[in-house]
Amino acid sequence: MTVAALALSLAVLSVAEPARPNLVVLLCDDLGYGDLGCFGHPRIRTPNLDALARDGVRLTAFYAGAPVCSPSRAALFTGRNPNRVGIRDWIPQDSGIHLPRGEVTLPRLLQQAGYTTCLSGKWHLNSKFDGKETNPGDFGFDHWFATQNNTDHSAPKNFVRNGKRAGPLAAHASQVVVDEAIDFIGKAGDRPFAVFVTFHAPHEIIETPEAYRAMYADEADPTVRDYYGSVSLVDHEVGRLLATLDANNLREKTLVLFTSDNGPEGLKRYPKAVHSHGSAGPLRGQKLSMYEGGIRVPGIVRWPGRVRAGTVSDEPVAFFDLLPTLCAATGTPVPDHLGLDGVDARAALEGKAVERPRPLAWQYDRAIGGPPWTLAVRQGPWKLLADAGMREFALYDLVEDPAERRDRASDRPDLVEALKRGLQSAQLPVAP
Fold first, then answer.
1. Which of 8, 163, 302, 417 has a 20 to 30 A CA-CA distance from 257?
2. What is the dihedral of CA 314, 316, 322, 326, to 10 degrees?
3. pTM
4. Per-residue pLDDT tens for 366-403?
C-alpha cells in the first residue's frame, strides 16, 4: 500500500469511528419543569444552565421515569419501567428494598465498554449502606460517593465513599458532589469517563448559603429566598463543572445531560416541606402526580458536533430511553435480553420523530390527583390517564392543551380505546 493510500484509509477510519464521547449526567432532585430561566421562570437566575441550553438542545417534552425519586432513578439506570425491577415507590431507610443485584445498568455497560465511571450524590436505590444490600459499586460504578437518600445540605454527615463513611463534611452538599466529580475527571487520564452527578437540591429540607439567599433579597418570604437560592447554587456548581471541562479541553469531547428526577414538591405537603416553591411552569400537577407537572421535567443536552446549538425539540423522550440512547451515542453494545422499555432516542436531539414499538407508559400506584390516576401513556400529542383497574380515563391533547385542562375522553372514545391498547401492550406489573 502506498503512503497516500494508507493515509486515505486512516482518514476514512477516523470518520467511520469517531472518538467516543465522555458523558456527564446532571440530575436534580425535585426541580420543577419551570424552575430554570431557560424554561421560563421569571425570577430564578440560572445563567450557566441557560448557556448550556444555548449551546445545545432544550428538550421540552422530556419525562422522568416516575413522579417520585427512587423509581425514576431505577428507570434512568436500567432503561426499564421501575415496577419491573421492584422499585415501586421511594425507598425508606432500613426498609430492605434495593435494586436487585442482577439488574444490568447503564454504568455497568459503559464500564464493560472501557469507560471509567463515577456516581457523586444521591443514590436512593437501596435502604442502607451496610454491605448487605446492593450499592452503586455493584452496578458498574468504579468510584462512588453517595448518600442512601437525603442529607443535611449545609453540613452533610451521611456520605459514603466506596463503602466507607466520609462525613461530616464542611462544605454544602451541592458543592461537595461537584468537587468529587471534578476530582474524578482529573484522574480519568486517557480513558473515556461517565460521571453521574446527582444533586440533593432542591429537595427539602433546603439549606441555602447566605450569598445565594441574598440574590433574592427583595422576596419577602425567607423560604422563597431559600428555594430560589438553592436552584441558583446548583446552577453555579454546574457552571464550575462545565468550566473544568473547558479548562481541560474536554468540551468538544463530552456529552452533557441535565435534568430532574420528577416534578416539584408541593408546598407544605408534609410538615417540613416549607421551602417547596418549585414551579411546574404551565403544567398541571406536582411531584407524585401523573399529570404533566409530576413527570415532565426540564431536559438539556449539549453534544458538540452532534447537536445543533440553540435548538428546541418537542419530541417525547423519557428516562427509559437514556440507557439505549447513551449506549448508542458511545458505541456501547446493549444485550438483546434486557427487556428495555426505552429506545435509542438520538433522533429527538435533532427534533426528529423517535420510532417506538409501543408508546411511552408510566405506572405509580400511590399517585395523587384524579380518581386517582395511577397509569399514563403518551403517543404523539395524546396522553391517556387511567385508574389502576383501567375503568376510568382522562384524555388530553398535550400540544393544544399542555396544562391538561380539557378532558377529551368523552368526545374521542376511539383514541381512548387505542391508547388503552397501547397501555396494555406495555404489560406493566400489577400492583402487589
1. 163
2. -50
3. 0.95
4. 999 989 999 999 999 999 999 999 999 999 999 999 99
- Answer yes or no: 143 catalytic: no
How do strand 254-260 and strand 22-28 relate by DSSP bridges?
A: parallel
Q: Which residues of 368-400 are buried (b: 16+ CB within 10 A; e: fewer)?
A: bbbebbbbbbbbeebbbbbbbeeeebbbbbbee
Q: Which residues contact 107 (CB under 8 A, 6 or more apart)?
A: 77, 117, 119, 136, 139, 140, 141, 194, 196
Q: Are strands 143-147 and 116-122 parallel, antiparallel or unpaired?
A: parallel
Residue of 69, 118, 153, 172 with catalytic role: 69
**34: closest CA among 339, 226, 264, 219?**
264
38 noted as active-site residue: no
**Pairing of β 193-198 and β 116-122:** parallel
DSSP per residue, 258-309? EEESS-PPPTTSSTT--S-----TT----TTBSSHHHHEEEEEEE-TTTS-T
Considering the candidates 41, 98, 124, 172, report the single residue annotated as catalytic.
124
